[in-house]
Design goal:
Helix content is about 20%, strand content about 30%. Helix 2 packs across helix 3. It is built from four helices and nine strands; from the N terminus they run H-E-H-E-H-E-E-E-H-E-E-E-E. The chain has about 190 residues and is of the alpha/beta class. It has a single domain (about 20-165), classed as 3-Layer(aba) Sandwich (Rossmann fold), CATH 3.40.50.2020. It has helices at about 5, 25-40, 55-65, 115-125; strands at about 15-20, 45-50, 70-80, 90-95, 105-110, 130-140, 155, 165, 180-185. The strands form two sheets. A six-stranded mixed sheet has the order 4-3-2-5-6-7, with helices on both faces. Residues about 1-5 have low confidence and may be disordered. The longest helix has 18 residues, at about 25-40. It binds guanosine-5'-monophosphate. The site of guanosine-5'-monophosphate has 17 residues, from strand 5, helix 4 and strand 8. Guanosine-5'-monophosphate (5GP) binds near residues 109, 163 and 168.
Length: about 190
């Protein structure tokens, strides 16, 4: 089994493989999603909930492209699973700052893999009596889904490969990349 050391290039950062979504395609799709969200939520009470840390870059670009007002709040969760496999047992590391009863919530996620993290989040948020709860995910891996869950807004469907960039990390690295790429070597499970 490979370790981070095996994957590392001279700078200590794993080498990149194939680009999965290039920067121009990301920006184009983010603009389309923002236009759709702006239409759907016109005149409503939108709170965008960014899931830390992976969704930060996507959320920042998405918000800047909106033509309606939206509040923003954040949650941080951690899965008890291994680094690449979600267990579905989720711990809230940081909760929302404000109550959300009566508000229209849009959960902004980097990627939906098994869907277990999102299922837990949606259950938690729905219990707080919002007016509505929807999901906007930059990426989804439909092949990996373990629960019936379809985000209302999706940037791109991608194959079952571990990806980094545009907010997504490997061991806290590579979030800065303006595109989404695979690693050169498969990620150890
Ligand atoms: P799920 O609960 O849907 O299985 O896992 C969702 C979380 O797993 C994502 O929010 C993300 O943090 C992490 N994740 C799933 N697939 C990938 C991937 O390909 N790359 C990275 N960097 N994180 C992933």
């Amino acid at each position: 089994m490979a370790s981070l050391g095996d994957l590392a290039s001279p700078g200590g950062v794993p080498a990149l493989g194939r680009t999965v979504v290039d920067a121009a395609s990301l920006q184009r799709r983010v603009g389309e999603l923002a236009a759709q969200i702006s239409r759907d939520y016109a005149g409503r009470n939108l709170v965008m909930i960014g899931i830390l840390k992976g969704a930060v870059i996507f959320l920042a670009d998405l918000m800047r492209a909106l033509t309606i007002e939206a509040e923003v709040d954040f949650m941080a969760v951690s899965s008890y699973g291994s680094s690449t496999d979600s267990s579905g047992v989720v711990r809230i590391l940081k909760d929302l700052d404000a109550p959300v009863a009566g508000r229209d919530l849009l959960v902004v996620e980097d990627i939906v893999d098994s869907g277990l993290t999102l299922q837990y989040l949606l259950r938690t948020l729905t219990a707080r009596d919002p007016a509505s709860v929807e999901v906007c995910a930059l990426l989804t891996k439909p092949e990996r889904r373990q629960v019936a869950l379809q985000p209302r807004y999706v940037g791109f469907e991608i194959p079952d490969r571990f990806v980094v960039g545009y907010g997504l990390d490997y061991a806290q690295r590579l979030r800065r990349l303006p595109y989404v790429a695979e690693l050169a070597e498969p990620v150890p499970g």
